[in-house]
Automatic annotation (TrEMBL):
GO MF entry, a single one: cystathionine gamma-lyase activity
Sequence positions bearing N6-(pyridoxal phosphate)lysine: 203
Pfam families according to UniProt: Cys_Met_Meta_PP
Upper lineage: Bacteria, Pseudomonadati, Bacteroidota, Chitinophagia, Chitinophagales
Name of the protein in question: Cystathionine beta-lyase
PANTHER family: CYSTATHIONINE GAMMA-LYASE (PTHR11808:SF15), TRANS-SULFURATION ENZYME FAMILY MEMBER (PTHR11808)
NCBIfam families reported in the protein's UniProt record: PRK07811.1
GO biological process: cysteine biosynthetic process via cystathionine; transsulfuration
Recorded family membership: Belongs to the trans-sulfuration enzymes family.
Species this protein is from: Parafilimonas terrae
Amino acid sequence: MSNEAKSYKGLGTKFIHAGVEPDPSTGAIMTPVYQTSTYVQSAPDTHKGYDYSRAGNPTRTALENACAQIENGKYGLAFSSGVSATDAVIRLLNPGDEVIASNDMYGGTYRLFSKLFEKFGIKFLYINQQDIKNVSDAITSNTKLIWIETPTNPLMNIVDIAAVTQLAKQHKLLVCVDNTFASPYLQNPLDLGADIVMHSSTKYLGGHSDVVQGCLVMNDKQLRDDLYFIQKSSGAVPGPQDCFLVLRGIKTLHVRMQRHCENGEKIAKYLRIHPKVAKVYWPGFEDHPNHAIAKKQMRGFGGMISFELKDESAAELKRVVTSTKIIALAESLGGVESLINHPATMTHASIPKEERIKNGLKDSLIRLSIGIEDADDLIEDLSQAIG
Ligand SMILES: *Cc1c(COP(=O)(O)O)cnc(C)c1O
């Protein structure tokens, strides 16, 4: 199957056609689920491009090509989860190497770095990357990688990707951007100079809360070969059925994201004037500290919103998050249905409390993943829950 980008004018056309060619044996317009572990060879080492499904599978190839194209990259690699994609990137490093990470990022990324990789002698610095001077100050002769997540989870801060990649190039450092929150509809880090884009495809790419998966996209052939070697050797590959689901999800990414953005804006504005709400974190507000950068590097502001109640008691927080009727209390994000989450005890529970508080993640913070339902219904639901 070819990985040649067709000529597209619009993002929608790209998302619908990326990676998918009619099936060569039948003409099926949708790439079939090649539910097979192995492939018959006509002679030893003579095969049709596939020898074993850990190393490659046609459904996965279609998805990997799609991921590459939607991120304006040359190469895509799919993994069995977002964290296994992150894990593959860190496996590029050696003991003694240093990574500049963020003090406001997905809790599972922090857990992977601090609990699994630190003991092998890789050092991680968790800093506030919104100020480029902090990033610059953290670089040492051992620094190899800058890990960016923007918008950050859950405080919705924005990191200037182009500024960081410019700095990284001067020091010959790799930059990997976790683009899960923005999705390729809103932001393309490779175009801003990043070396690798990572996604938890579980979220907006899949979009229907029915699959766990991750991917990496890059332009450099050597980087691709090194990451492919890691993918094949450590084996965290997704099955073909899951690849099919993400391929299907990508086809509607643009229409879903348009609605996520519209609903996100309506709900952020609704919460901001609610008398019981103390603060709303959403990069679309003009007075958001990084609004200008968000406007520069993103095509919209998305459907992820965090907020704090004026009443900071644990009882009030619990009452609100258990009172929504349409919006479900659950981890994860990016699906068609809206979710409410309490980061301190759910998604970010693996970050030590002192560390969390120091970085501005209060116990009273509530995170919303706004889905694509009718905004009026979501507002009514929040209204009866907050009271
Ligand atoms: C969910 C998530 C991950 C981890 O992905 P999984 O698919 O759950 O392994 C990484 N980064 C961000 C921003 C996420 O939201």
